Amino acid sequence: MAELVDGYLIPFAWILAKILVFVVVVLVGMAYLTYAERKIISAMQMRIGPNVVGPFGLLQPFADAVKLMTKETVVPTGASTIVFFLAPMITFSLAMIAWAVIPVASGWVISDLNVGVLYLFAVSSMGVYGIVMAGWASNSRYAFLGAMRSASQMVSYEVSMGFVMICVLMTAGTLNLTQIVEAQRGMWFVLPHFPMFIIFFISVLAETNRHPFDLPEAESELVAGFMTEYSSMSFALFFLGEYANMIMMSGMISILFLGGWLPPFGIHIFGHESGLLWFALKVCFCLFVFIWVRATFPRYRYDQLMRLGWKVFLPFSLVWLVLTAGFLVYTGRVH
């Protein structure tokens, strides 16, 4: 029995505890990201924003959650019920399980996979399935058109994202996310790969269906796109999945380009054990830019969106990949 406890139960309980901590932190982060977005955009548009529920409106996310949980779930008459309810669950679940390989500080990771980048890329590319299922199962033209837009949009921008990630992986010489961060101790990858950082960030906006690339749910054309027929908690799961993806992609940008938990210029302002705080600050900065872009730019037309992905980002990232490979071979870092 002692062997069983020492060999299995204690490590299993430790893994469960880590998962619980990650899930709770991400869920609270999603709730207050909605609050932050409304406050930041209202400030940029000279409005007040949420300020009634709780001090400074801080309890507004919980009021929204209670409202969504107590509303009736309406299912369209011609909908495929099982697929209709599976779609938001898949979208939300994929957004959460991606956090399994994200190192938030040195040693703070649920599963330190040697192929963590491939895991992240696989999970993020599966997100389109939930959206396509929702569009098809809703039996609505608006929802179906939104789902088709999302599928083509995500596939288009994943290609350039893949080339950008390969540039970073060749520079770091590893697929392990922790080792990628450690490879940036001398210099963050945002400096040598700054054009790729810009392309990656814009591609992430398109990948997460965020403004100005929120064409799958363009309210002026498609009401709410693939979410048109959803209500109550099924709508909330889509909503939470989008914000969880925003936080996860911000973490990914921080790890690949901004040195993860490493302080800038090696300056430990908050002490040597402040990796988690630095990672959180970088994620918050990326999320602020997400919101800033939404408050600033008009929505693209769909042909402009596809042209940007296929005729600008794809050739440029491919050329940069060749240049990176040539430089690494020339300097003797790759044989």
Taking the sheet with the most strands, its summary is: none
| Uncertain stretches | 1-6
Mean pLDDT score, rounded? Answer: 82
Number of helical segments with 4 or more residues:
12
Number of domains: 2
Shape: globular
How far the N terminus sits from the C terminus, by CA atoms, comes to 52 Å
Structural class: mainly alpha
Radius of gyration computed on alpha carbons: 21 Å
The number of E-state strands comes to: 0
Write the topology of this structure.
Blueprint lengths: L1 H43 L15 H11 L10 H17 L18 H10 L1 H11 L3 H32 L4 H6 L11 H14 L11 H4 L9 H26 L17 H22 L5 H29 L5
Helix pairs in contact: 1-10, 1-11, 2-10, 3-5, 3-10, 5-6, 6-8, 6-12, 8-10, 10-11
Characterize the structure shown.
The protein has two domains: 1-70; 81-330, no CATH class. Helices cover 67% and strands 0% of the residues. The protein is built from twelve helices and no strands. The N and C termini lie far apart (52 Å). Residues 1-6 have low confidence and may be disordered.
